[in-house]
Each structure stands twice: as structure tokens, then as C-alpha cells.
């Protein structure tokens, strides 16, 4: 999935998609360990999709916080 496609989804859809990707990743890892996974690139694709979804969720979370709460987590020079 491309990130511009994911940005069109709602928060609930993204959370559901995150859970779905995690389940498919676990299944793919299990199949890979048993030697039954035919397309091993599926592992990498799933990890990247999961990272994209988590990134968009985190961006939305940060954009909804007030500015002073966003600065709490940043390093102070």
C-alpha cells in the first residue's frame, strides 16, 4: 500500500488494518519457519506496510495534541 492511499482511511480503519497486517505477518513468519512460505518478500512488504500505518497513526496523534504537549517528548538544547 502507498502512504497516500492510507491517508484517505479513517482512524478506525487504520487501526483495523494495523491488526490485520500484524496477524498476516505472524502467519507469514510461522510459514517461513516451517519452510512453507513461497514468497519470502511478503515478510518485508508486510513490515513496511505496518511501518507506514504506524507512521500515519503517530502523525495524526501528534497533530491532535496541543503544541506544549508535543514539545515534552522532544530533546531540549
Automatic annotation (TrEMBL):
Molecular function per GO: structural constituent of ribosome
UniProt GO BP: translation
Pfam families: Ribosomal_L29
A single GO cellular-component term on record: ribosome
Entry keyword annotation includes DNA-binding: no
Keywords of the record: Ribonucleoprotein, Ribosomal protein
Signal peptide as annotated in the record: none
InterPro entries xrefs: Ribosomal_uL29 (IPR001854), Ribosomal_uL29_sf (IPR036049)
Record-linked HAMAP family: Ribosomal_uL29
Membership in a protein family: Belongs to the universal ribosomal protein uL29 family.
Record protein name field: Large ribosomal subunit protein uL29
Protein's organism: Pajaroellobacter abortibovis
